[in-house]
Amino acid sequence: MRYIDHHAHMVSRTTDDYQQLALTGCVAVTEPAFWAGWDRSCGDSVEDYFRQLTEFEPRRAAQFGIQHYTWLAINPKEADDRELSREVLARIPKFLDRPTVLGIGEIGMNRITRNEIATYTEQVELAIEHRQLILIHTPHLEDKLKGTRISVEVLRRYREIDPQRVLIDHAEEHTIEMILEHGFWAGLTLYPQTKISPQRAVDVIEKYGPERICVAGACDWGPSDPIAVPRFAMEMRRRRHPDAFIERVVFDNPVRFLSQSPKFKVTSTGAAEPARVG
Amino acid sequence: MKTQAPGCPLTGAQIVDEYFIENRTRLLEIAAFLDRLDRVDPDCAVKDFRMLVFRDAVDALGTPGDRLHRIQMLLSDPTTEPLDRLDRKSALGAYDRGAKETRS
Question: Within 13 Å, how many C-alpha atoms sit on residue A265's CB side?
Protein backbone atom coordinates (compact mmCIF):
# COMPACT_ATOMS: atom_id res chain seq x y z
CA MET A 1 0.00 0.00 0.00
CA ARG A 2 1.34 3.44 -0.90
CA TYR A 3 1.79 5.93 1.91
CA ILE A 4 3.37 9.23 2.89
CA ASP A 5 5.22 9.83 6.14
CA HIS A 6 4.78 13.53 6.90
CA HIS A 7 7.20 13.50 9.85
CA ALA A 8 10.51 11.67 9.48
CA HIS A 9 13.91 12.94 10.63
CA MET A 10 15.79 11.16 7.90
CA VAL A 11 19.14 12.90 8.47
CA SER A 12 19.36 10.69 11.57
CA ARG A 13 18.60 7.50 9.68
CA THR A 14 20.65 5.17 7.50
CA THR A 15 20.23 4.57 3.79
CA ASP A 16 18.91 1.12 4.73
CA ASP A 17 15.95 2.89 6.31
CA TYR A 18 15.16 4.62 3.02
CA GLN A 19 15.21 1.17 1.46
CA GLN A 20 12.76 -0.11 4.09
CA LEU A 21 10.49 2.87 3.46
CA ALA A 22 10.54 2.22 -0.30
CA LEU A 23 9.96 -1.51 0.12
CA THR A 24 6.89 -0.85 2.28
CA GLY A 25 5.25 1.57 -0.19
CA CYS A 26 6.44 4.99 0.92
CA VAL A 27 6.30 7.51 -1.93
CA ALA A 28 7.22 10.68 -0.02
CA VAL A 29 8.55 11.85 3.33
CA THR A 30 8.53 15.33 4.80
CA GLU A 31 11.26 16.20 7.28
CA PRO A 32 10.77 18.89 9.91
CA ALA A 33 13.79 20.71 11.28
CA PHE A 34 14.83 19.03 14.50
CA TRP A 35 17.17 19.07 17.48
CA ALA A 36 20.46 17.25 16.94
CA GLY A 37 20.37 15.79 20.46
CA TRP A 38 22.74 18.52 21.62
CA ASP A 39 22.45 22.28 21.33
CA ARG A 40 23.98 23.92 18.27
CA SER A 41 26.49 26.66 18.94
CA CYS A 42 25.49 29.21 16.30
CA GLY A 43 23.32 30.10 13.32
CA ASP A 44 25.96 28.87 10.87
CA SER A 45 25.59 25.38 12.26
CA VAL A 46 21.82 25.47 11.71
CA GLU A 47 22.27 26.89 8.23
CA ASP A 48 24.46 23.93 7.30
CA TYR A 49 21.68 21.70 8.58
CA PHE A 50 19.18 23.53 6.34
CA ARG A 51 21.51 22.87 3.38
CA GLN A 52 21.58 19.20 4.32
CA LEU A 53 17.78 19.15 4.46
CA THR A 54 17.27 20.94 1.15
CA GLU A 55 20.20 19.65 -0.94
CA PHE A 56 21.64 16.35 0.26
CA GLU A 57 18.66 14.57 1.76
CA PRO A 58 16.35 14.85 -1.30
CA ARG A 59 19.07 13.26 -3.42
CA ARG A 60 19.53 10.41 -0.95
CA ALA A 61 15.77 9.75 -0.92
CA ALA A 62 15.51 9.93 -4.71
CA GLN A 63 17.82 6.91 -5.03
CA PHE A 64 14.90 4.87 -3.72
CA GLY A 65 12.16 6.65 -5.66
CA ILE A 66 11.04 8.56 -2.58
CA GLN A 67 10.30 12.27 -2.75
CA HIS A 68 11.80 14.21 0.14
CA TYR A 69 10.38 17.54 1.33
CA THR A 70 11.28 19.62 4.33
CA TRP A 71 10.14 22.20 6.89
CA LEU A 72 12.46 24.83 8.32
CA ALA A 73 12.53 26.28 11.84
CA ILE A 74 14.44 26.63 15.04
CA ASN A 75 13.15 23.53 16.78
CA PRO A 76 11.39 23.66 20.18
CA LYS A 77 14.29 22.06 22.08
CA GLU A 78 16.50 25.04 21.22
CA ALA A 79 13.78 27.69 21.13
CA ASP A 80 14.44 28.85 24.69
CA ASP A 81 17.76 30.25 23.43
CA ARG A 82 16.52 33.61 22.16
CA GLU A 83 19.83 34.67 20.66
CA LEU A 84 20.21 31.50 18.60
CA SER A 85 16.54 31.64 17.65
CA ARG A 86 16.83 35.18 16.29
CA GLU A 87 19.92 34.19 14.31
CA VAL A 88 18.13 31.21 12.78
CA LEU A 89 14.90 33.07 12.02
CA ALA A 90 16.87 35.68 10.11
CA ARG A 91 18.34 32.94 7.90
CA ILE A 92 15.15 31.02 7.11
CA PRO A 93 13.63 33.34 4.44
CA LYS A 94 16.46 32.80 1.97
CA PHE A 95 15.68 29.05 1.98
CA LEU A 96 11.92 29.34 1.56
CA ASP A 97 12.03 29.47 -2.24
CA ARG A 98 13.91 26.19 -2.48
CA PRO A 99 11.86 23.58 -4.38
CA THR A 100 11.36 21.11 -1.53
CA VAL A 101 10.60 23.50 1.34
CA LEU A 102 6.92 23.16 2.29
CA GLY A 103 6.70 25.51 5.24
CA ILE A 104 7.73 26.42 8.76
CA GLY A 105 8.18 23.56 11.22
CA GLU A 106 8.44 21.92 13.50
CA ILE A 107 7.73 24.85 15.77
CA GLY A 108 6.24 24.82 19.24
CA MET A 109 7.29 24.31 22.80
CA ASN A 110 9.39 21.90 24.80
CA ARG A 111 9.11 22.79 28.52
CA ILE A 112 6.76 25.73 27.85
CA THR A 113 8.93 28.63 28.96
CA ARG A 114 8.24 32.29 28.25
CA ASN A 115 11.20 32.30 25.85
CA GLU A 116 9.88 29.28 23.98
CA ILE A 117 6.50 30.98 23.56
CA ALA A 118 8.18 34.14 22.26
CA THR A 119 10.18 32.16 19.69
CA TYR A 120 7.13 30.14 18.70
CA THR A 121 5.10 33.32 18.20
CA GLU A 122 7.81 34.83 16.00
CA GLN A 123 7.89 31.68 13.88
CA VAL A 124 4.12 31.77 13.46
CA GLU A 125 4.45 35.37 12.28
CA LEU A 126 7.24 34.35 9.89
CA ALA A 127 4.94 31.72 8.38
CA ILE A 128 2.15 34.28 8.00
CA GLU A 129 4.47 36.83 6.40
CA HIS A 130 5.73 34.30 3.83
CA ARG A 131 2.39 32.45 3.38
CA GLN A 132 3.84 29.13 4.47
CA LEU A 133 2.19 25.97 5.76
CA ILE A 134 2.85 25.38 9.47
CA LEU A 135 3.84 22.15 11.22
CA ILE A 136 3.61 22.27 15.01
CA HIS A 137 5.37 20.07 17.54
CA THR A 138 3.50 19.53 20.79
CA PRO A 139 5.56 18.74 23.90
CA HIS A 140 6.14 15.30 25.32
CA LEU A 141 4.48 13.39 28.13
CA GLU A 142 3.22 15.51 31.05
CA ASP A 143 3.88 18.73 29.12
CA LYS A 144 1.71 17.86 26.12
CA LEU A 145 -1.65 19.07 27.43
CA LYS A 146 -0.41 22.47 28.57
CA GLY A 147 1.79 22.93 25.49
CA THR A 148 -1.01 22.08 23.08
CA ARG A 149 -3.39 24.48 24.81
CA ILE A 150 -0.93 27.36 24.59
CA SER A 151 0.05 26.53 21.00
CA VAL A 152 -3.61 26.66 19.96
CA GLU A 153 -4.22 29.88 21.92
CA VAL A 154 -1.35 31.64 20.15
CA LEU A 155 -2.55 30.51 16.71
CA ARG A 156 -6.07 31.74 17.41
CA ARG A 157 -4.79 35.27 17.99
CA TYR A 158 -3.96 35.55 14.27
CA ARG A 159 -6.96 36.05 11.98
CA GLU A 160 -4.66 35.60 8.98
CA ILE A 161 -4.14 31.95 9.84
CA ASP A 162 -6.30 29.44 8.01
CA PRO A 163 -6.39 26.49 10.42
CA GLN A 164 -6.59 24.07 7.50
CA ARG A 165 -3.00 25.10 6.62
CA VAL A 166 -1.71 24.10 10.07
CA LEU A 167 -0.94 20.55 11.23
CA ILE A 168 -0.55 20.10 14.98
CA ASP A 169 1.56 17.02 15.50
CA HIS A 170 2.11 14.43 18.23
CA ALA A 171 -1.58 14.57 19.17
CA GLU A 172 -2.84 12.06 21.70
CA GLU A 173 -6.19 11.14 23.18
CA HIS A 174 -6.31 14.12 25.56
CA THR A 175 -5.32 16.75 22.97
CA ILE A 176 -6.90 15.71 19.68
CA GLU A 177 -10.33 17.18 20.36
CA MET A 178 -9.02 20.70 20.97
CA ILE A 179 -6.99 20.46 17.74
CA LEU A 180 -9.81 19.22 15.54
CA GLU A 181 -12.54 21.44 17.02
CA HIS A 182 -10.55 24.54 16.05
CA GLY A 183 -10.23 23.35 12.46
CA PHE A 184 -6.55 22.33 12.47
CA TRP A 185 -5.12 19.11 11.09
CA ALA A 186 -3.92 16.63 13.72
CA GLY A 187 -0.91 14.36 13.41
CA LEU A 188 -0.60 11.06 15.26
CA THR A 189 3.06 10.11 15.59
CA LEU A 190 3.71 6.44 16.17
CA TYR A 191 6.50 5.97 18.66
CA PRO A 192 7.58 3.00 20.75
CA GLN A 193 7.27 4.75 24.13
CA THR A 194 6.72 8.48 24.43
CA LYS A 195 3.98 9.18 21.90
CA ILE A 196 1.16 7.01 20.52
CA SER A 197 1.23 3.35 19.49
CA PRO A 198 -0.30 2.04 16.25
CA GLN A 199 -3.04 0.38 18.31
CA ARG A 200 -4.01 3.61 20.07
CA ALA A 201 -3.76 5.58 16.82
CA VAL A 202 -6.27 3.22 15.23
CA ASP A 203 -8.51 3.67 18.27
CA VAL A 204 -8.39 7.45 17.67
CA ILE A 205 -9.38 7.00 14.01
CA GLU A 206 -12.20 4.67 15.02
CA LYS A 207 -13.45 7.22 17.56
CA TYR A 208 -13.06 10.49 15.62
CA GLY A 209 -13.05 9.36 11.98
CA PRO A 210 -10.31 10.06 9.43
CA GLU A 211 -11.15 13.70 8.68
CA ARG A 212 -8.07 15.98 9.05
CA ILE A 213 -5.94 13.30 10.71
CA CYS A 214 -2.55 12.08 9.42
CA VAL A 215 -0.21 9.46 10.86
CA ALA A 216 3.59 9.48 10.83
CA GLY A 217 6.51 7.58 12.30
CA ALA A 218 8.49 10.61 13.55
CA CYS A 219 11.63 8.49 13.32
CA ASP A 220 14.75 10.25 14.55
CA TRP A 221 18.03 9.44 16.34
CA GLY A 222 16.23 7.94 19.36
CA PRO A 223 14.29 4.69 19.73
CA SER A 224 11.86 4.97 16.83
CA ASP A 225 10.61 3.05 13.83
CA PRO A 226 11.02 4.26 10.24
CA ILE A 227 8.29 1.91 9.05
CA ALA A 228 5.76 2.77 11.75
CA VAL A 229 3.15 3.91 9.21
CA PRO A 230 2.91 0.45 7.54
CA ARG A 231 2.64 -1.02 11.04
CA PHE A 232 -0.33 1.29 11.58
CA ALA A 233 -1.82 0.06 8.27
CA MET A 234 -1.25 -3.52 9.41
CA GLU A 235 -3.11 -2.77 12.65
CA MET A 236 -6.00 -1.32 10.62
CA ARG A 237 -6.12 -4.53 8.58
CA ARG A 238 -5.97 -6.61 11.74
CA ARG A 239 -9.24 -4.95 12.73
CA ARG A 240 -10.79 -5.62 9.30
CA HIS A 241 -10.84 -2.02 8.08
CA PRO A 242 -11.06 -1.96 4.25
CA ASP A 243 -7.95 -1.05 2.26
CA ALA A 244 -9.59 2.03 0.71
CA PHE A 245 -10.22 3.40 4.20
CA ILE A 246 -6.66 2.69 5.30
CA GLU A 247 -5.28 4.37 2.18
CA ARG A 248 -7.38 7.42 2.89
CA VAL A 249 -5.57 7.85 6.22
CA VAL A 250 -2.02 7.00 5.15
CA PHE A 251 -2.01 8.49 1.63
CA ASP A 252 -5.02 10.64 0.67
CA ASN A 253 -5.03 12.70 3.87
CA PRO A 254 -1.36 13.74 3.73
CA VAL A 255 -1.77 14.50 0.02
CA ARG A 256 -4.69 16.80 0.86
CA PHE A 257 -2.81 18.66 3.54
CA LEU A 258 0.59 18.86 1.87
CA SER A 259 -0.79 19.75 -1.58
CA GLN A 260 -1.72 23.14 -0.17
CA SER A 261 1.90 23.89 -0.98
CA PRO A 262 2.30 24.10 -4.77
CA LYS A 263 5.73 22.51 -4.37
CA PHE A 264 4.28 19.18 -3.22
CA LYS A 265 4.19 17.03 -6.33
CA VAL A 266 2.44 13.84 -5.21
CA THR A 267 -1.12 13.74 -6.51
CA SER A 268 -4.04 11.55 -5.49
CA THR A 269 -3.30 9.33 -8.48
CA GLY A 270 0.24 8.70 -7.31
CA ALA A 271 3.67 10.24 -7.45
CA ALA A 272 4.15 12.72 -10.25
CA GLU A 273 7.47 14.15 -11.30
CA PRO A 274 9.97 14.31 -8.48
CA ALA A 275 10.83 17.75 -7.17
CA ARG A 276 14.05 19.08 -8.70
CA VAL A 277 16.79 19.79 -6.25
CA GLY A 278 20.34 21.00 -6.16
CA MET B 1 -15.52 15.39 2.72
CA LYS B 2 -17.07 14.75 6.14
CA THR B 3 -17.03 11.18 7.38
CA GLN B 4 -18.45 9.54 10.43
CA ALA B 5 -16.30 7.78 12.97
CA PRO B 6 -16.22 4.19 11.73
CA GLY B 7 -15.88 2.45 15.09
CA CYS B 8 -14.12 -0.87 15.38
CA PRO B 9 -15.35 -3.55 12.94
CA LEU B 10 -14.52 -6.37 15.36
CA THR B 11 -16.99 -7.94 17.77
CA GLY B 12 -16.27 -8.00 21.49
CA ALA B 13 -15.31 -11.67 21.31
CA GLN B 14 -13.00 -10.98 18.37
CA ILE B 15 -11.29 -8.16 20.29
CA VAL B 16 -10.66 -10.48 23.22
CA ASP B 17 -9.44 -13.27 20.92
CA GLU B 18 -7.11 -10.91 19.09
CA TYR B 19 -5.75 -8.79 21.91
CA PHE B 20 -5.99 -10.79 25.14
CA ILE B 21 -2.53 -12.39 25.05
CA GLU B 22 -0.59 -9.21 24.34
CA ASN B 23 -2.46 -7.32 27.06
CA ARG B 24 -2.02 -10.19 29.51
CA THR B 25 1.71 -9.76 28.87
CA ARG B 26 1.50 -6.00 29.58
CA LEU B 27 -0.44 -6.62 32.78
CA LEU B 28 2.22 -9.05 34.04
CA GLU B 29 4.97 -6.55 33.15
CA ILE B 30 3.29 -3.89 35.31
CA ALA B 31 2.87 -6.35 38.20
CA ALA B 32 6.53 -7.36 37.89
CA PHE B 33 7.64 -3.72 37.85
CA LEU B 34 5.69 -2.93 41.04
CA ASP B 35 6.92 -6.08 42.79
CA ARG B 36 10.53 -5.31 41.79
CA LEU B 37 10.28 -1.84 43.25
CA ASP B 38 8.71 -3.20 46.46
CA ARG B 39 11.59 -5.66 46.84
CA VAL B 40 14.29 -3.11 46.20
CA ASP B 41 12.95 0.06 47.83
CA PRO B 42 9.40 0.01 49.20
CA ASP B 43 9.78 3.65 50.30
CA CYS B 44 10.39 4.76 46.73
CA ALA B 45 7.18 3.10 45.67
CA VAL B 46 5.19 5.37 47.97
CA LYS B 47 7.30 8.55 47.84
CA ASP B 48 8.40 9.08 44.26
CA PHE B 49 5.82 11.40 42.67
CA ARG B 50 5.84 9.36 39.47
CA MET B 51 4.94 6.21 41.36
CA LEU B 52 2.15 7.95 43.25
CA VAL B 53 0.56 8.92 39.95
CA PHE B 54 1.27 5.46 38.56
CA ARG B 55 -0.71 3.88 41.39
CA ASP B 56 -3.60 6.31 40.84
CA ALA B 57 -3.50 5.35 37.18
CA VAL B 58 -3.59 1.64 38.01
CA ASP B 59 -6.61 2.33 40.22
CA ALA B 60 -8.26 4.20 37.34
CA LEU B 61 -8.15 1.02 35.27
CA GLY B 62 -10.77 -0.46 37.58
CA THR B 63 -13.45 2.07 36.67
CA PRO B 64 -15.07 1.53 33.26
CA GLY B 65 -15.36 4.36 30.72
CA ASP B 66 -12.74 6.58 29.17
CA ARG B 67 -9.91 5.10 31.22
CA LEU B 68 -7.25 6.30 28.83
CA HIS B 69 -8.36 9.92 28.92
CA ARG B 70 -8.53 9.89 32.70
CA ILE B 71 -5.04 8.43 32.98
CA GLN B 72 -3.65 10.97 30.49
CA MET B 73 -5.11 13.74 32.66
CA LEU B 74 -3.65 12.22 35.84
CA LEU B 75 -0.19 12.25 34.22
CA SER B 76 -0.49 15.76 32.71
CA ASP B 77 0.58 19.16 34.00
CA PRO B 78 -2.77 20.86 34.69
CA THR B 79 -1.31 24.37 35.09
CA THR B 80 -1.54 27.12 32.50
CA GLU B 81 1.34 29.46 33.42
CA PRO B 82 4.57 29.21 31.42
CA LEU B 83 7.87 28.58 33.22
CA ASP B 84 9.95 31.71 33.77
CA ARG B 85 13.14 29.77 33.04
CA LEU B 86 14.07 26.53 31.37
CA ASP B 87 14.56 24.01 34.20
CA ARG B 88 15.57 20.94 32.19
CA LYS B 89 15.50 19.71 28.62
CA SER B 90 13.13 16.76 28.92
CA ALA B 91 9.80 15.77 30.41
CA LEU B 92 9.74 13.14 33.17
CA GLY B 93 6.52 11.33 32.32
CA ALA B 94 4.34 12.61 35.17
CA TYR B 95 3.62 15.99 36.71
CA ASP B 96 4.95 16.57 40.22
CA ARG B 97 1.84 18.01 41.89
CA GLY B 98 3.47 17.95 45.33
CA ALA B 99 6.38 20.12 44.22
CA LYS B 100 4.01 22.68 42.77
CA GLU B 101 2.08 22.87 46.03
CA THR B 102 5.32 23.30 47.98
CA ARG B 103 6.49 26.11 45.70
CA SER B 104 3.26 28.10 45.84
Answer: 15
pTM: 0.95
Domains and CATH numbers, chain A: 3-271 (3.20.20.140)
Query: How close A251 comes to chain B (CA, Å)?
Result: 15
Is residue B42 in some structural domain? Answer: yes
Query: How many domains is chain B partitioned into structurally?
Result: 1
Identify all chain A residues contacting B73, using CB atoms and an 8 Å cutoff.
145, 174
User: What's the average model confidence in pLDDT over B84-95?
Assistant: 96
**Has residue B37 been placed in a domain?**
yes
Taking residues A86-100, report their average pLDDT.
98
Q: What is the structure's pLDDT at B98?
A: 85
Which chain B residues are Cβ-neighbours of A206 within 8 angstroms?
Answer: 5-8
ipTM strictly over 0.85? yes
Please, what is the average pLDDT of chain A?
96
For B7-16, b/e burial (b = at least 16 CB within 10 A) is ebebeeeeee
